[in-house]
Design goal:
Helices cover 55% and strands 0% of the residues. The protein is mainly α and 160 residues long.
Length: 160
């Protein structure tokens, strides 16, 4: 009777794996799935951010909402949310695969949206009145959609 329940995945006979131990299975699933290519890259990038955190060594059944809330990632809240959404998906897949019985609620970080958009006429006036290197900074921000805090470090040594 016990063996039949083990085969059905109703009884756990081994220890619960860590996040790093389940990662290869998750990444193989991502690669083999019918997800869009952009979504596959999203989860791969999320994993690259997660694998340098403390949570990677935790057993899946020990990852809690509190453990996820203290994770910190470089860049903006949107960047950190890539990792948190990946963690959320990994835990849900582990639940589907009967590796864990349930998964915690993973809360996302607050994201800041764009504060101001510059129309083409305003951009032309701004560029005409801007000396170098400000002129190039404005062009980079307008052409790429980057925020000032992302552009300024690129040229800090040249701005001084």
């Amino acid at each position: 009777m016990l063996q039949a329940r083990e085969k059905q995945g109703l009884v756990r006979t081994s220890r619960v794996p860590s996040l790093s131990e389940i990662a290869p299975r998750f990444l193989n699933w991502v690669e083999a799935s019918t997800l869009e290519l952009a979504t596959k890259r999203y989860y791969q990038y999320g994993w690259r951010m997660l694998k340098v955190t403390e949570v990677v060594r935790m057993r899946l059944d020990h990852i809690t909402t509190d453990a996820a809330e203290v994770l910190r990632f470089p860049g903006s809240g949107a960047n950190g949310n890539v990792a948190l959404r990946t963690l959320r998906r990994m835990l849900r897949k582990a639940t589907e695969w009967n590796v864990i019985q349930s998964c915690p609620r993973i809360k996302l970080l607050k994201e800041r949206g764009r504060d101001l958009l510059i129309d083409p006429a305003t951009e032309a006036k701004l560029l005409a009145a801007s000396p170098q290197p400000l002129h190039d900074v404005i062009l980079i921000m307008q052409d790429t959609g980057m925020r000032p805090q992302d552009v300024f470090p690129m040229g800090t040594s040249q701005l001084v």
